[in-house]
Design goal:
Layout lengths: L8 H37 L5 H6 L22 H16 L10 E6 L2 E5 L3 E2 L2 E2 L3 E8 L3 H9 L4 H4 L3 E11 L2 E8 L8 E12 L9 E9 L14 E15 L13 E12 L6 H27 L7
Parallel strand pairs: 8-10
Antiparallel strand pairs: 1-2, 2-5, 3-4, 5-11, 6-7, 7-8, 8-9, 9-10, 10-11
Length: 313
């Protein structure tokens, strides 16, 4: 990858696609091995312990009551930007995709999942905004956002990740990450530096929803954070929001509902500038293939993680 690359675009795409397929195969193998290991442990425990009892208390975060309010992050110098970007992104996420001829094009339609993009370039670099709508049964908005926000689980569902560092622990609901991604030849290796904030939305704008949670990620560069494009990595610049709404079966509430009564409506919006010199046609072809796989993989992972655990609102 570079301004003078002699690799034809079709060969560039084929090479990147092969690299991504290999990463996905490795992930599926890890999942199978992990499942076999868990099944082996359960069978070894036998009747001495119930598997449900083993996992029931696991993974329920013990967080303070002000988690998701930003109360502990408000004294940080990043807070004005975090608050402003979160509000802007939530407003945009709530807007429809067919209004005012605003250029959204449907590019993936698989059951409940629909994905739209709008073609945009800056200085010849593809930064197409993406908007996805999905509906998932059996999990809550908070659970979906919990697994998206918490770095402890990120390697399980974000397949191209090589390393995650927390460079600023602003608050329990607000972190600054430096993420390094695996190099996929012939593309250069990438990294991203961004703050991530998880928030409960209490403006009552979502009619019928039991609760609404969001996670917003936005690239940031402060003096004390690692600078961009200083080493082998090309810096990615991103703005992402995951908006999740919990809906309950009519007649149920958070105390009486079971997982069968839960529906989580998801809106995922992202604008990513990948940096570097990858051809526009190659980037669009990769996005078209990889984004639907990503959203299905992530939501499926959350459903699988939650099914044997108490409901978290």
């Amino acid at each position: 990858e570079g301004p003078h690359s002699t690799i034809p675009e079709d060969e560039f795409f084929d090479a990147v696609e092969t690299g991504l397929d290999k990463i996905e195969e490795d992930r599926q193998l890890r999942v199978r091995l992990k499942y076999q290991s868990q099944q082996s442990q359960i069978s070894n425990v036998g009747s001495l312990h119930s598997p449900t009892a083993e996992t029931e208390g696991d993974d329920i975060p013990q967080l303070s009551e002000d988690f998701g309010t930003g109360a502990q992050a408000k004294s940080h110098k990043l807070w004005p930007e975090i608050d402003r970007i979160c509000t802007e992104q939530l407003t945009q996420a709530r807007q429809g995709v067919g209004e005012d001829g605003n250029g959204w094009q449907l590019f993936a339609d698989e059951g409940e999942m629909k994905m739209y993009r709008r073609e945009e370039e800056v200085d010849g670099m593809v930064i197409d905004p993406l908007k996805s709508c999905h509906v998932v049964k059996g999990v809550t908005a908070r659970e979906m956002c919990h697994y998206f926000f918490d770095p402890a689980y990120r390697n399980d569902w974000e397949t191209t990740l090589e390393d995650v560092q927390i460079v600023d622990n602003v608050a329990p609901d607000t972190l600054v990450f430096l993420q390094t991604y695996k190099r996929i030849w012939p593309a250069s290796q990438r990294d991203a530096l961004f703050w991530s904030h998880m928030r409960r939305i209490t403006d009552n704008a979502d009619t019928g929803a039991n609760d609404v949670w969001i996670v917003c990620n936005h690239s940031n560069q402060n003096e004390e954070y690692p600078p961009a494009n200083q080493g082998k990595c090309v810096r990615i610049y991103l703005t992402v929001i995951l908006v999740c709404q919990t809906y309950l079966t009519p007649g149920k509430d958070s105390k009486t509902a079971t997982r069968d009564d839960l529906t989580c409506k998801i809106t995922y919006c992202s604008t990513v500038n990948p940096g570097g010199w990858a051809p526009a046609t190659v980037l669009r072809a990769i996005y078209k293939k990889e984004y639907p796989k990503f959203l299905k993989r992530f939501t499926g992972y959350v459903v699988d993680q939650c099914k044997a655990k108490p409901i978290m609102y």
